[in-house]
Design goal:
The complex is a heterodimer of chains A (164) and B (505). By secondary structure, chain A is mostly helical. Chain A is built from six helices and no strands. In chain A, helix 2 packs antiparallel against helix 3 and helix 4 crosses helix 5. The N terminus of chain A is likely disordered. With 505 residues, chain B is mostly helical. A two-stranded antiparallel sheet of chain B has the order 1-2. The chains are: A mainly alpha (164), B mainly alpha (505). Chains A and B meet through helix 2, helix 3, helix 4 and helix 5 of A and helix 8, helix 9, helix 17, helix 18 and helix 19 of B.
């Protein structure tokens, strides 16, 4: 991750926009914390230490870290980043999103089987007509073991109904 | 009762068939995840937390400890045969081990790693058993401010002392701390940062965060690298048995590695990596065969592997006696204790000696099992390395989400899993370490409690925190651990620290 440190500093001194964005995000998080705990200020007790104290300290630290990040961003001190291929990332994220949306209606096996197939696709195995059935059967097996024997509450759908 | 009697009793409890079974499952799983690149012991324990919370606490904790030890063993296999360390503590092993494998001496390299791990694990677990009661006696004298100081020290060492940037380490830590205040405040019952979402009232689930950061973040990161050349697995050629010369060169390295690794694990000083680097440097200086270093010197495998396992045992000293995790795996094991309503610390030794001593004794047994699992069955583990990536990562994500769904089958929880997974991915891309987030999330509420108790005693006077000699001493050490590396980096000596980077284990 950090091996290219020297390379990045020797490049032209342009602000690192992504790092600057991180600095802004840190300050925004701090602002959210300040805003949210400000309504708790009245409840600080006799010792002046209440539920707002520690969040305030954390928020101050985040502002400080945001400023430090901004300085490093302008000096180009962030390590060079590897080129990222976003295609596979989209497949994996799509798999997780599909599982999330399908879970309640289609049940554990189908939802997680879809996740399995889409992740495999992200890693180069695009033959969905193979990976999807494999995933669903695998997940049904997992469902039988974990919901049946270990009594984990995995949501049941049409497929699982056959085993109930 | 003396330590010895406690340990004997623990052995009896650990020898119960059901506990033996848990230990076996633990070490087998641990070895498997140690061998597989991309998943480490921290993630595995996190995955199993929700699955095990209906089981018996002693058994589950024995299993978790087995995973931790097993992960340390398994990592060496990947390093030696694939030159891709399965977990960060095995990076040094790859230096000499992979050279040995390429020279056709993979068998002895695996053997010295496994036997060295066994020797180190045995000695270090005994040290743990005999040291723990003394630390407990010391810990009983600790008040809130000493605990707070200890946690500050752990925060500093985990986040900023090692790694290539204090800024990014601290940022990770404070992101974890910010997440840790979400939910109902434990002392006053006030809601903080929940924004009216009922799912957030209980705070962010440690397991959800850990699984998202480690499993999903890592999967996304590896997916984004695309398919860049397949890794080459070195076949194990020749006998796995070591020659007399190998034994003669290994045994001193094992003992030295143990003596280096254990104290480093036992102090709140970051992960097992540091001990392995120090051990490697020591062996390189003491060896009678300096020309072999860099070309496959057996001492360079024996020492660091012993150090790595000894520090895994050492990590359990602060975890069990003080409730203080110093690595990501220890942090998640702490979450495992909390899941059963147990708080590791001096009191646990008094209230639940059977559990604590059963756990310590089971580590001795786990060690023996690991030796058997790793030497004759090595060929089986090597097969794991040949699973194609699409199936491997698809399977990892199925199990990653299984744990979360099992704990709480809600769309909201899966949404958090996805969100934190993307966060973990982004942090990897920008070179932020992951472990500080998890440690911050778990230790944050504990540190806050101790701080507020201390300040309540002093009626808000902050100087009270540093007026006890122990607390003041700990703060000084924490300050040094922050400042010294900063100066080293400015003077261009940062390379050493980058190498010592504590990552997920």
């Amino acid at each position: 991750m950090s091996l290219d440190h020297s390379k990045s500093t020797s490049q032209q001194r342009r602000p690192d926009w992504a790092a600057l964005a991180i600095a802004v995000i840190l300050v925004v998080i701090a602002a959210v914390i300040f805003f949210d705990v400000s309504r708790l200020k009245g409840t600080a007790g006799y010792s002046q230490v209440g539920p707002a104290t520690v969040p305030d300290w954390i928020a101050f630290a985040l502002v400080g870290l945001g400023i430090w990040t901004a300085i490093e961003a302008f000096r180009g001190d962030f390590p060079a980043r590897d080129h990222q291929q976003f295609g596979p990332v989209v497949w994996v994220v799509a798999g997780l999103a599909a599982q999330m949306l399908l879970l309640k209606t289609a049940g554990f096996s189908i939802a997680t089987g879809v996740l399995f197939a889409l992740v495999a696709a992200g890693f180069g195995k695009r033959k969905l007509w193979i990976t999807l059935p494999v995933g669903i059967v695998l997940c049904l097996g997992i469902w039988v073991i974990f919901a049946g024997l270990l009594q984990l509450s995995l949501p049941a759908g049409p497929l699982e109904q056959l085993f109930l | 009762m003396t330590t010895f009697e406690f340990l004997l009793q623990g052995l009896l409890s650990a020898m119960e068939p059901i506990n033996l079974l848990y230990a076996l499952v633990g070490v087998t799983l641990g070895t498997a995840v140690g061998v597989l690149p991309g998943i480490g012991p921290a993630l595995t324990v996190a995955l199993l937390l929700p699955v095990t919370y209906r089981l018996d606490p002693t058994g589950s904790l024995i299993m978790f400890a087995g995973i931790y030890y097993g992960g340390m063993y398994g990592g060496s296999t990947t390093s030696i045969l694939l030159n891709t360390p399965g977990e960060s503590a095995s990076i040094v092993t790859a230096l000499e081990g992979n050279k040995m494998a390429r020279a056709g001496r993979g068998g002895p390299a695996l053997a010295t790693a496994a036997i060295g791990s066994f020797v180190a694990g045995l000695i270090a677990t005994l040290l743990l058993a005999f040291l723990a009661p003394y630390v407990v006696q010391l810990a009983i004298k600790f008040g809130p401010r000493e605990y707070f100081a200890l946690m500050v020290l752990a925060f500093v060492t985990v986040s900023s002392a090692f790694g290539d940037s204090a800024l990014r380490g601290l940022t990770s830590l404070f992101i974890g701390l910010a997440f840790s205040v979400i939910g109902i405040d434990q002392l006053t019952g006030q809601t903080r940062l929940a924004f009216g979402v009922p799912d957030l009232l209980d705070g962010i689930e440690v397991t959800t965060m850990a699984v998202a950061m480690f499993a999903i973040g890592e999967t996304l990161y590896i997916a984004a690298q695309g398919s860049r050349g397949a890794d080459i697995v070195e076949a194990v050629k020749g006998s796995v048995w070591m020659s007399a010369a190998d034994w003669g060169r290994s045994w001193k390295a094992w003992l030295r590695g143990t003596m280096i690794g254990f104290p480093i694990g036992a102090m709140p000083a970051g992960g097992a990596e540091i001990g392995t680097f120090l051990s490697y440097a020591t062996e390189k200086r003491l060896t009678k065969h300096p020309e072999e270093f860099g070309n496959g010197a057996i001492e360079g495998v024996a020492g660091p592997e012993a150090a790595n396992n000894a520090s895994a045992a050492g990590t359990l000293v602060p975890l069990l006696t003080l409730g203080l995790p110093t690595t990501a795996t220890a942090a998640i094991m702490l979450a495992g204790f909390q899941q059963y309503g147990l708080q590791p610390g001096p009191l646990l030794f008094a209230t639940n000696p059977q559990l604590v001593w059963g756990l310590i004794a089971s580590l001795l047994i786990a060690n023996l099992m690991l030796l058997v699992l790793n030497l004759p069955l090595i060929g089986l583990w090597v097969k794991l390395l040949t699973i194609p990536k699409p199936w491997l990562y698809a399977g990892i994500l199925v199990f990653a989400t299984l744990g979360t769904i099992g704990a709480n089958p809600s769309v909201f929880e899966l949404g958090m899993l996805l969100t934190f997974g993307l966060l973990g991915y982004a942090m990897r891309v920008f070179g932020y370490p992951i472990a500080p987030v998890i440690v911050g999330l778990i230790l944050g509420p504990l540190a806050e409690q101790q701080l507020r108790r201390a300040l309540a005693i002093s009626q808000g006077d902050v100087t009270f925190l540093v007026t006890s000699p122990i607390a003041a001493g700990l703060f000084v050490v924490a300050a040094l651990a922050f400042i010294v590396p900063l100066i080293m980096r400015i003077r261009g000596r940062g390379q050493v620290l980058t190498q010592l980077a504590a990552s997920e284990d």
